[in-house]
Design goal:
CATH topology of the largest domain: Extracellular Endonuclease, Chain A
Number of strands: 13
Distance between the termini: 94 Å
Structural class: alpha+beta
Largest sheet: 7 strands, antiparallel
Strand content: 15-25%
CATH architecture of the largest domain: 3-Layer(aba) Sandwich
Oligomer: single chain
CATH superfamily of the largest domain: Extracellular Endonuclease, subunit A
Length: 294
């Protein structure tokens, strides 16, 4: 009788051990499933965040890219804060492009005024070509837009980024528009800008031993691709005093493309590109800025 009881107890113990083992196995399996689920959720979240960051930093492709007028000569070069197409025949840029974000307008790099030739481009103008010419060394990409980085700012003083500008333009409406662009970047988080001379083979004159082309007009085009809705505007200014200021010079980007032969913001989807390049509403840009500041 005692033996039968011991067998019963021993059998019950084995049963409980099996149950405990099964319980532990199920528990471990449950934990593994939970971990896998959690990992998938976290990975999905990271992918979502990455896609948002990608969209914000350039889901439209390279908006700094420009298709240069095929009839003009060019040497393309990328610097730390800007891209440009340099004209080796006329010793000025065909165009300069850059992105300007809200954060970049708040840099603390001290401005330098050290102009120099780009040592990598033999046809770059010399600083003394402008001496006693009556023209300023006019920045296309302004030093003030590169306060976020010392090297980026210094590179704006390369002569590849410089054009002969009348002081009344350089220190007047052109400068005012540069300041406006910084306000728009602060409001819209990021804008893209392309500017340069209008090269039509009819300069005001040539200056310096290098014979630097003095353009009669300058252009600037600006888009705010992440605004809702996306916005665009262009400007064409005479190389001198600007009657009526920047508002009088506002034109659709399409008009700037027709004048210069360049193709701007081609990486935008066609429907967005067609919309922003046909707009010319300076009043909207200005009033939009005021509304957003409130």
């Amino acid at each position: 009788m005692a033996n039968r009881n011991r067998t019963k107890k021993s059998g019950g113990k084995r049963s409980r051990q099996k149950s405990d083992k099964l319980y532990r196995s199920l528990l471990i399996l449950g934990l593994l499933i939970a971990c896998a689920y959690l990992g998938a959720r976290l990975e999905g979240k990271e992918q979502d965040e990455t896609s948002v960051r990608t969209h914000e930093s350039g889901s439209f492709g390279n908006l700094m890219a420009v298709r240069t007028n095929p009839s003009v000569k060019e040497i393309a070069k990328s610097y730390k804060g800007m891209d440009l197409s340099f004209n080796p025949q006329y010793h000025i840029p065909n165009w300069v492009s850059w992105e300007l974000t809200a954060d970049e307008t708040d840099g603390d790099v001290t401005r330098t005024n050290k102009f120099s030739s780009d040592p990598d481009i033999e046809s770059s103008a010399e600083t003394w070509d402008y001496s006693y010419s009556g023209y300023d060394r006019g920045h296309m990409a302004p030093a003030g837009d590169m306060r976020w980085d010392k090297e980026a700012m210094q590179q704006t003083f390369y002569m590849t980024n410089i054009c002969p500008q009348a002081k009344t333009l350089n220190a007047g409406t052109w400068k005012n528009l540069e300041e406006k662009c910084r306000q728009w970047a602060q409001i819209d988080s990021a804008i893209y800008i392309v500017c340069g001379p209008v090269i039509d083979g009819k300069p005001i004159e040539y200056i310096g031993d290098t014979r630097v082309y003095v353009p009669r007009e300058f252009f600037k085009v600006i888009i705010s691709p992440y605004a809702n809705p996306a916005r665009g505007i262009g400007f064409i200014m005479p190389n001198g005093k600007v009657p009526g200021g920047m508002q009088a010079c506002a034109v659709p980007i399409d008009s700037v493309e027709a004048l210069t032969g360049h193709d701007f913001f081609a990486s935008l989807p066609d429907e967005i590109e067609n919309e922003v390049e046909s707009q010319c509403d300076f009043h909207y840009w200005s009033t939009y800025s005021k509304r957003k500041k409130r």
